């Protein structure tokens, strides 16, 4: 059942309840006001009857004469019922046959409350002819100073009630019921239209949610609904929040799919990198096992090749684990203050053999001084190592590498080589895990495409920025920027 249907049913039930309460309340108030008016109008009726009829003032009552008097009065006023009560409330005579009398006595408290003004109107007393309390008029009868009884007049008797009920059913009640039904139908129609205007956008939003869920949150195949911005309408606000959430989910799913594909590609390529040295190692080991009389020089050459392959495997596995830890966020930063110039010279010293073998000069600027930087010295050293290693690999013999540091509001480290440069089509991909440049100067030096990806992750972890510019045939420049 839809929200609109539930609201419509709830509205119908509420209006039926309200209409019932309204009708019952109206009937009660109407009867109360009518009874109050009738009783107020005929309040002195019994007293006038006592005052104007000497037969009621005699010490000995003439029952037959009083019965005739009451009957005559009832003929003149059919709505009235007349009774003579003694001082204890017992019915002495009345205007009806005895067979019609159900109660032979009347409670005196309502009579005293009326004659002594003890409570507001309407006051209801017992009707000797029925069990339903009725409004009445009453007056005491005194013989001298002694109370002899009461004249008790039911103002709205049974004949009046029958006529009133017939008229109420035929006209008043019908008109009231008709008005209530018309008002309810009009109000019900207005409320249904209002509910539809409220629930329509909710239904549209629910349908949009279902369609997007079935389409795996592909907002390209299922466009998001437009909602009014800066609106005070809660449905518009809900729609905007949902659109933002759907776009974020779509972006995250796309990123996860991209990462999954990248991971598959990387694993495929890494497995190739692992198989190549392993296959080489296996081949040389098998040759040595088959040729038991292998010459020592040849054996040493094979072992040297196997050892080189084990170094390649060790380097690759180390880089894989390092990149995995960085991407998983399991690496912590231990910051401390240090002299950046000293760190640059320490890193240069590590590459002295490589620089000498390739006849490459690594110049540091400034040659001396102090630039204080607060960072993780070990991770920054790893960054510089990767960048210098990459620069050496892509530099010609006899060329130069410049490593310059400057300090102002930020600390900048610029590494410039004058090697082969990076092809323009590769510049956007050099920090991806499996980037492998095709322009390394020395093809014999194996590298596995993870160094620059690790460098990028480390720089981000340290809160720095890494950028690159390159020109084919002229060289490449990496720029690191850190806050002090």
Describe it.
The chain is α+β, with helices and mostly antiparallel strands. The chain folds into 3 domains: 3-163, PAS domain (Beta-Lactamase, 2-Layer Sandwich), CATH 3.30.450; 234-326, Helix Hairpins; 332-483, Heat Shock Protein 90. 54% of the residues lie in helices and 16% in strands. The protein has 11 helices and 12 strands. It has helices spanning 3-41, 45-52, 63-76, 108-115, 158-214, 234-290, 296-328, 340-350, 352-358, 377-393, 451-461, and strands spanning 81-86, 91-94, 124-125, 134-143, 146-154, 336-339, 361-365, 372-375, 400-407, 410-417, 465-471, 475-483. The strands form 3 sheets. The protein has a 5-stranded antiparallel beta sheet. Strands 7-9-10-12-11 form a 5-stranded mixed beta sheet, with helices on one face. The chain has a two-stranded antiparallel ribbon with strand order 6-8. Strand 3 and strand 4 (134-143) form a beta hairpin. The relative contact order is 0.06. Residues 437-448 have low confidence and may be disordered.
- Cα distance, first to last residue? 63 Å
Uncertain residue ranges: 437-448
Q: In total, how many domains does the architecture comprise?
A: 3
What's the overall average pLDDT, rounded?
82
Strand order of the largest sheet: 2-1-5-4-3
Radius of gyration: 54 Å
Report the principal-axis shape. Answer: rod-shaped
Assign the CATH class of the largest domain. Alpha Beta
Please name the CATH architecture of the largest domain: 2-Layer Sandwich
Strand content: 15-25%
Number of helical elements: 11
The CATH superfamily of the largest domain is PAS domain
The name of the CATH topology of the largest domain is: Beta-Lactamase
Oligomer: single chain
Structural class call reads alpha+beta
**Major beta sheet, specifics?**
5 strands, antiparallel
Enzyme class: transferase
Keywords: ATP-binding, Cell membrane, Kinase, Membrane, Nucleotide-binding, Phosphoprotein, Transferase, Transmembrane, Transmembrane helix, Two-component regulatory system
Domain HAMP: 196-254
Protein name: histidine kinase
């Amino acid at each position: 059942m839809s929200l609109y249907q539930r609201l419509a049913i709830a509205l119908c039930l509420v209006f039926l309840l309200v209409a019932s309460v309204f009708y019952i309340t109206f009937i009660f108030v109407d009867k109360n006001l009518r009874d109050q008016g009738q009783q107020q109008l005929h309040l002195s009726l019994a007293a006038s009857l006592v005052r104007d009829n000497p037969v009621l003032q005699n010490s000995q009552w003439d029952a037959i004469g009083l019965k005739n008097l009451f009957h005559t009065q009832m003929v003149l006023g059919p709505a009235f019922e007349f009774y003579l009560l003694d001082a204890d409330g017992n019915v002495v005579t009345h205007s009806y046959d005895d067979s019609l009398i159900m109660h032979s006595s009347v409670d005196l408290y309502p009579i005293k409350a009326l004659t002594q003004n003890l409570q507001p109107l309407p006051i209801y007393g017992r009707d000797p002819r029925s069990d339903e309390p009725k409004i009445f008029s009453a007056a005491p009868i005194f013989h001298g100073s002694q109370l002899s009884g009461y004249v008790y007049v039911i103002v709205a008797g049974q004949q009046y009630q029958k006529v009133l009920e017939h008229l109420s059913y035929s006209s008043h009640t019908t008109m009231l019921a008709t008005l209530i039904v018309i008002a309810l139908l009009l109000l019900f129609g207005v409320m249904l239209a209002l509910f539809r205007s409220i629930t329509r956008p909710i239904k549209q939003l629910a349908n949009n949610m279902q369609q997007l869920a079935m389409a795996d949150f592909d907002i390209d195949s299922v466009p998001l609904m437009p909602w009014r911005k800066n609106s005070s309408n809660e449905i518009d606000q809900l729609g905007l929040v949902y659109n933002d959430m759907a776009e974020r989910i779509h972006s995250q799913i796309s990123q996860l799919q991209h990462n999954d594909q990248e991971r598959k590609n990387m694993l495929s390529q890494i497995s190739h990198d692992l198989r190549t040295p392993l296959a080489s190692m296996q081949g040389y080991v098998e040759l040595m096992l088959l040729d038991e009389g292998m010459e020592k020089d040849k054996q040493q050459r094979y072992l040297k090749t196997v050892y080189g392959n084990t170094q390649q495997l060790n380097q690759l596995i180390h880089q894989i684990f390092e990149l995995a830890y960085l991407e998983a966020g399991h690496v912590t930063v231990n910051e401390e203050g240090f002299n950046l110039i000293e760190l640059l010279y320490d890193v240069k010293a590590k590459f002295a053999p490589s620089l000498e073998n390739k006849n490459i000069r690594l110049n540091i600027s400034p040659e001396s001084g102090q630039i204080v930087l607060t960072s993780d010295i070990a991770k920054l050293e790893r960054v510089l190592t990767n960048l210098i290693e990459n620069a050496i690999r892509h530099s010609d013999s006899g060329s130069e590498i410049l490593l310059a540091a400057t300090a102002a509001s930020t600390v900048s480290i610029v590494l410039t080589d004058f090697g082969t440069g990076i092809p323009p089509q590769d510049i956007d991909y050099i920090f991806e895990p499996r980037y492998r440049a095709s322009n390394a100067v020395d093809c014999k030096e194996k590298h596995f495409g993870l160094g620059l990806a690790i460098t990028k992750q480390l720089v981000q972890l340290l809160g720095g920025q890494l950028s690159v510019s390159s020109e084919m045939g002229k060289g490449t420049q990496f720029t690191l920027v850190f806050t002090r």
